Amino acid sequence: MSAAEIDPLALVSGLKRELPARTPYVEVRFSHMYDRALVARGELEYLGPGKLGKRVDKPYEETTTIADGQVTVQRGKRKPRQISLDRVPELEGFLRGFSALLGGDPVALQQDFDLSSSGDSARWQLRLSPKDKRLKKRIDALQVDGSGDNARCFSIIDADDDVSILMVEQLATAELPKPLTQKNVEQTCQAGAAAQ
Length: 196
What we know:
The relative contact order is 0.17. The longest helix is centred in the middle third of the chain and has 14 residues, at 89-102. Helix content is 23%, strand content 43%. β4 (62-67) and β5 form a beta hairpin. The chain has a single domain (3-191), classed as Lipoprotein localisation LolA/LolB/LppX (outer membrane lipoprotein receptor (LolB), chain A). By secondary structure, the chain is an alpha+beta fold. The chain has an eleven-stranded antiparallel β-sheet with strand order 6-5-4-3-2-1-11-10-9-8-7, with helices on both faces. It has helices spanning 8-14, 89-102, 106-112, 133-136, 182-195, and strands spanning 21-30, 38-48, 51-58, 62-67, 70-75, 81-84, 113-120, 123-130, 139-147, 150-158, 163-168.
């Protein structure tokens, strides 16, 4: 299959998983504010449309839960903080899109994002560009690297070019590349996707 034949809608449909869907992750964040990458490890959870969870186990403990139009964040033993998604509609659009991606629902995904793809079934890349102008001021794109019906990395590319890369499934437990640069992590995502 050539790059021209890759169908982004078929890629999204193939990502659907049985609920509940959980996967370990390692997140590597590259920011202009820091002189080195920040690394966190934990578990991602998808419980159905609009229901997402992200638990950080290292280097600190934090749980973020999204459900029923609310974002709840609990760090350590502190009192949980709640934010209504009504207060940040652009974030709601992003979460709706991310939920549709994890749910393998291309129709719902297209409501909030423009989709493009490249590669072949052995190694592909899916790029989601937000349609909402307010969200576009914060996030340039969501990028997914994968192979077959499996996503291996989710990259959130901020409008200011900061990047957060979540390596999931087998890549979550793999040794991080050295030196830990954005280019090396991206290459690991692409090579990891091809190798699976």
